[in-house]
Amino acid sequence: MNHVKYRVGKWLPSDRNFLNSWIEKKVNQAKHSKLAINPAIADLRDTIYNDPILYMSFTSMYDEIPQGYNEPVKNFDTMLLVMNQILQEAPCYSTIENTIGLVGFPINAILDWAMGTSGGYLAFTNTVVNEKLNVILNEWKLFLQSEASKYVLANGPIHQPQPDYTNPVGWFSPEALEAIAAMDPLRGQGNDPQDALSNFIYNYQCQPTQPYFGYKSWDDFFTREFNPGVREVSNADKDPSVIVSACESAPYNCVTNAMMRDKFWMKGQPYSLVDIMNNHPLSQQFGDNSTVYQAFLCAKTYHRWNSPVDGRVIAIQNVPGTYYAEAPVEGYDPAGPNDSQGYIAELAARALIFIQSDNPKIGLMCFVAIGMAEVSSCEITVKVGDHIKKGDPTGTFHFGGSTHCLIFRPGVNIDFDFHGQTPSLNTYNIPVKSRIGVVKG
Question: What SS3 state is found at 55?
Fold first, then answer.
């Protein structure tokens, strides 16, 4: 139970002992804090207490966690108390050895085992609960977009109290910059420098001579943009038959037999297209045996979306959904909801962008940005009617990144390029705007 499977995207530590220690410190901090209860937290608490079904679900989710899992959070009152504390904090980095030094999904961390129980399944698929969670996460988003969150953008130790971290340091410390540079798939190639600080300055738009590198908030830092010329569509990939990566992301899955309607909650997490596309009228232009390419974003890298093809935006939609639901077949998933990426494509808060490609061999396709846990604020930056070129910006996740899908209609025959990998939970980033496939025929 001490060491679990690798945490995809490095949003949570792989070492369970470290994570439990972090949660225990966070529980102790929250219990001794004089922080007022946020009205959004109080609203969820009152909703749980006033609904017998929800009360049963939130009570049983902790009762059902098997003995031996050493869950530091024992009940939903403590869960809410810790969530309240998190709303006034930004994630920082820890220099503890042999550990992924980021708890990037702090609310996810305190729900980690509870999500996999039957009580957790009922609670986190409940529409009212997700509406309340949306308000709570928006409160955190406001904090992360405020200047008060800049304290974690230090270039050394963080002096603001961080009782839940060991040796907390800012995101411009040598250790954190090295962690960011280590995720760069092009590090050391061409002019891309090996040195971590130089690598960051080379890659990202910033003002290194200014406090906080010129970033106005944690969210401003996390949604940072690449410098011009760092990630561009190559001349060869401007060919209309080439499809490029829409996000800096690692390939998770690719199927050519996705069905219009399928049992997405079953083993294997098959894709159900009408559910992914929220029964949008344009979903009827797809059909059985469509192609779905899915890839996930990592915690320390670029989190904006870019168009995979040349074409015209013909529809957009933000879809409300779940935040902490995971596939029932995964059971007590220590990496949840990472192992449920196919499943949450149908359920999670997400954004749809339908693009009519200029290439008739592609035709109508759909980009789906899928929020995962805290990362569920999907901002679409294009409008219906916009003509976009391959690589043009289309939107962004706030507070990090998650997972996304590209959906192509039946008969679109694509020769995919996974950059020497097999899509899985153990892949590395493919650079945004680089080739991931060529349409044949």
Answer: helix
